[in-house]
Amino acid sequence: MPRGEIMKRLGFASALSVLALAVAAPAARAADIGAARIPIAAEVVATGFTWTAVYGGLHAGYGFANTSISVPGIFGFSGIGSNGWLVGARIGADYQFAQRWVAGVLAEGNIQGIDTVIGLGGPNLKLTGDRRWSIRGRLGYLLTPETMLYATGGFTQGRTTFSVTGLGSASFSANGWQVGGGIETRLAGNWFMFAEYIHTFSNSFGQFAPLSVRPTSGTARIGINYRHGFGGLHPTFAAPVRRNWSGFFAGVQGGYGFANTTLAVPGVFSFRGIGSQGVFGGVIGGYDHQFAGTNIVAGIEGDASLSDIRTRINLGGAAASFGSDWNVGLRARLGYVMAGSIMPYVAAGYGWTHVTSSGLGGAFNQPLSGFQLAAGVETMLSANVALRAEYVHQFNASRSLIPGLLTTRTDSGRARVGITYKFGGEDAAVVARY
Description:
The chain folds into two domains: 49-235, Beta Barrel (Porin); 237-434, Porin (Beta Barrel), CATH 2.40.160.20. The chain contains one helix and 20 strands. The chain has one helix spanning 3-34; strands spanning 43-45, 53-71, 75-96, 101-119, 124-144, 147-164, 168-188, 191-202, 212-229, 238-242, 247-265, 269-290, 296-315, 318-336, 342-359, 364-380, 385-396, 399-402, 406-422, 429-433. A hairpin with a 3-residue loop joins strand 2 (53-71) and strand 3 (75-96).
């Protein structure tokens, strides 16, 4: 066949191909529009990262403490209660020794106002945990290349000051150890945010033997670190991200809680307080809505827990206790999604707590209720499974124990973790590869 004829036929075939594509494309788009849309998985390419670094940071938070007092075999009281604020600073170093694992050490110092106050219609007696320093190790697991879940533990020393208005003060120190956990994530550049819970077990103050005086405390903190990295980037790995956080969710939650009860005869006497502590666990569920075109998520949630947060008294073999056995809360929350995988949030609402007592010849049941404030961090473990860590504080209303004479009011704080399953969500899942 002549060369010119071959070229004509090739040109004609090409024109037919282009025309066929032009006709087929609108039909394909129409078919796609008519088809049901389902969650998809994709890959988003991002730069690598290393956690090998030195860092410094600041933190602030709120804490409760219980100081047990006992003479072995004779008397025991599990809870002189304290609560209050803390601020502090830290320095540390981390080493990323595997793709998802980080080990490190840190030192921190805190100034605190976690106190017990006895008012005597004028002068006050105050017992304050006012200073604490700690050295802890920590081990972290990377949920994403820029978000780390970690456990921490180590040595601590705290100072407690006893003061009387107008008469002066005296201070005592005790060593102990700490355990805790938290989550840290990159905000931008070298700036990182972390949220954590630290539980402190102190030794008894030696000055009061044979009386044992032993504080235990729990503090929830949030802070900022500035990190200076070293070394090369680690290999990439896939991490779960959620495009759309809208939808219902349900799961389980549990943790450790403290409470502090104030007794008062108005204008005459007050005692803050009687402390209790213990574990709790239960269920949580709710609904979130992510506003279109934004990273803002608003929602509503409820939880119900069984608890054993109690104060215990032993006197010559006889025993009594009182505290909460269940709690229910209903809150609205507002969060901001960062990088699709993690959401810091705040929440506010109302809570109900049931208090019981037993022993020493009597028992009672009493409901308490009050305003709740909460803050936490939620991160995706998979396309539909999320991990949350949060602190919930409940301010219960004052109640009259003896009308016109004696009143009581209880504040409580609960640090907890939870696992939830997020249902549905169009374009629900995307896998980011770092």
